[in-house]
Write a structure and sequence with these properties.
This protein has 13 helices and five strands. By secondary structure, it is of the alpha/beta class. The protein has a five-stranded parallel sheet with strand order 2-1-3-4-5, sandwiched between helices. It is elongated and about 75 Å long.
């Protein structure tokens, strides 16, 4: 069942209160899919019972099944809906609009005031026996550079390959840290890694978009970044900015060790003749 199509087909037959719920769902699908019936009702300014009745009218035995189809619709149609929006947006100032969106993401993330959380994450990384990172597809925009930089700083760092979750998670210990990129679409494979890590006492750091993210209850520390984009893909500008803040904070707190490791690296670069010098 395509829940959005079903809502549109039945919209005129719904009561006024039910239409309010339907409108909120269609206009705010990204957010609604993670809300309870009570929270959806509050957003639509109707009762929780109205939301539950709407689910029944649309053919669902309970709200949980209704919510599951909403989540499936979000995952299947999210990219296409954004692509359609691009086609409809012919504004001449498209580039300015793009940069405005990126600035808004950074500003909203800055105003979330996560200085304590960033410091806590920096300290956890400093004290970890081994640092693991997981996050694939677009999540690699964050985990790939983060893995590279942390490897320069500390050495004991592993970017978990997508097809080798079981092999790497077998070696987790309670002295390790796992850094996760967990943005919509929320990846089931990533969630399995986190669940395994939690059972083994690993410190779990989650980069995600909202306190409603399914990864938040599993995390030791959650870091929130806004990823709104005018394109059909999410923007990772704000998550990468948080990553850079963590790296900067580590450099302050663990200055001597980082300086020592960077000095060794520079020596190796010279020995390997890695830097390009035009002669």
């Amino acid at each position: 069942m395509n829940v959005l199509t079903t809502i549109e087909e039945n919209y005129q037959q719904l009561s006024m209160s039910q239409q309010k719920v339907a409108y909120v769902i269609i206009q705010h699908l990204d957010e609604i899919t993670l809300l309870s019936a009570k929270k959806i009702g509050e957003k639509a300014n109707v009762s929780e019972a109205t939301v539950l009745r709407l689910a029944k009218i649309l053919g669902y035995p309970n709200f949980k099944e209704f919510q599951r189809d909403l989540q499936a619709s979000l995952l299947k149609e999210r990219t296409l809906r954004r692509m359609n929006a691009i086609k409809q947006n012919d504004e001449a100032s498209w580039l300015q609009s793009h940069y405005d969106s990126e600035i808004e993401n950074l500003t909203a993330t800055k105003l979330s005031n996560q200085e304590k959380e960033i410091t806590d994450v920096a300290k956890s990384i400093m004290n970890a026996s081994h640092i693991y990172l997981a996050g694939w597809r677009m999540g690699l925009s964050l985990t790939s550079p983060f893995s590279y930089i942390l490897k320069i700083m500390y050495g004991a760092v592993t970017q978990i390959p997508q097809g080798e979750i079981a092999e790497y998670s077998t070696h987790f210990s309670n002295k390790d840290i796992l850094i996760i990129s967990a943005f919509p679409r929320y990846c089931t494979e990533t969630k399995k890694v986190v669940e395994t890590a939690k059972k083994q006492g690993v410190t779990i750091i989650v980069f995600t978009d909202s306190p409603l993210s399914p990864f938040v209850p599993l995390a030791t520390t959650s870091l929130f970044a806004k990823t709104v984009s005018n394109s059909f893909l999410d923007s990772y500008t704000a998550p990468v900015a948080i990553m850079n803040a963590i790296i900067y904070r580590i450099s302050q707190l663990d200055y001597n060790r980082i300086q020592k490791n960077l000095t060794k690296m520079e020596q190796q670069w010279k020995y390997m003749n890695i830097e390009y010098n035009e002669k």
